[in-house]
Amino acid sequence: MISTMRTKIIVNPIAGRGRAEKLLADLYAYLDRYGVSADMVHTRAKGDAIQLARQAAQEGYERVVAMGGDGTVGEVTAGLLRAREEGYEAVLGILPAGSGNDYAYAVGIPTRLEAACRRLADGQVRCIDVVRVTADGKTYYFNNTVGIGLDADVLLETHKLKRIRGFLLYFTALMRVLASNGRWPYPVRVTVDGETLPQQAVTLVTACNGPRVAGGFYLTPDARPDDGQLDVIVADQLSRLRVASFITRVMRGTHVGAKPVHIRRARHVVIEGLRGLPGHMDGEVLCTAGRRIEIEILPGRLKVWC
To answer: Do 56 and 115 share a domain, yes or no?
Structure first.
């Protein structure tokens, strides 16, 4: 198998708590094994991948590969979309090397590095939905999930944990949040496709383009990244005990249809906080005290090699 696409790989060396950098020696061997020729560049700071991806598309690379976690993939996506607006087209590729790798899971890319490298050689292009987010006046793009509430507080807690990664990282952070005083319930007003839902206090509100978050929580198990719709989950106000039960069911995807959980499909969502709310986007902190988040799906906007 030999891939003839002109390819640039953008490596986030600190993704997965340094996992990406440790995989580099194997990466060169696997690329050679499967006949994938690629140039490579490393990010140095948060946000670098946006400009690097944009520049790669401008330079004529046909495929730009994100090697990192969901945050890195999101940055590369943003850069490719900006390049597309300028008339430069490139396909997104993914080599999963983060803590969760939920977007790779959603589009069917293997999480083992060797299998992912092989996919670069024998995969194909799919048109995948992208989501545009405007939070407190700033515009972003995301691939997998965005929302407010308990899951955002859990994400903030993961930043305090330095020696673990993957599913255990998120599970440990959750236990620590549940053991603290916490900020929930979170008072919000949610508008879905123009319909404003009754104002309420919630545990979380998350709009999903894929089925899984945080490496093992099947928040919206029926969500698909190419159906032109978001799966929006609202979990009502829950006690700590009920949160623990809810999370256990989310790990198996059996919470759908349970009384405190509401899931509906939509193209446009607005979440307004009655006080500052924690927000997350593709495994990254979106805000710590957000007031208004507007979410809109862009069907088939991104070409992904998978």
So the answer is: yes
Sign of CA dihedral 195, 283, 135, 202: positive
Q: Are residues 117 and 140 in the same domain?
A: no
Q: Enumerate the β-bridge partners of residue 130.
A: 298
**Interatomic CA distance for residues 237 and 120, integer angstroms:** 44
Query: Among 296, 238, 298, which Cα is nearest to 270's?
Result: 296
Which one, of 117, 116, 160, 146, lies nearest residue 230 by Cα? 146
What is d(CA 167, CA 60) in angstroms, rounded to the nearest whole number?
Answer: 37
* Tens of pLDDT, residues 89-147: 999 999 998 878 999 999 999 999 999 999 999 999 999 999 999 998 889 888 999 98
Reported as a single tens digit per residue, the pLDDT across 159-202 is: 888 777 667 877 888 888 888 766 668 899 999 999 998 878 89
In a domain, 128, yes or no: no
Can 75 be counted among the known catalytic residues? no
Residue 81 scores a pLDDT above 60: yes
Catalytic residue among 86, 284, 294, 296: 284
CB 68 within 8 A of CB 97: yes
Q: Decide if 11 contacts 42 (C-beta within 8 A).
A: yes
Q: Between the CA of residue 57 and those of 9, 38, 79, 106, what are the distances in Å? A: 12, 14, 9, 24
Q: Does 208 share its domain with 108?
A: no
**Are the beta carbons of 261 and 222 closer than 8 angstroms?**
no
Long-range contacts of range 53-56, CB-CB < 8 Å, 24 or more positions apart?
53/10, 53/77, 53/78, 53/79, 53/80, 53/83, 53/90, 54/79, 54/80, 54/82, 54/83, 54/88, 55/79, 56/8, 56/10, 56/90
Final residue belonging to a domain, choices 71, 88, 123: 123
Does 158 lie in the same domain as 109?
Answer: no
Q: Are 152 and 209 in the same domain?
A: yes
The mean per-residue pLDDT over the stretch 11-36 comes to 85
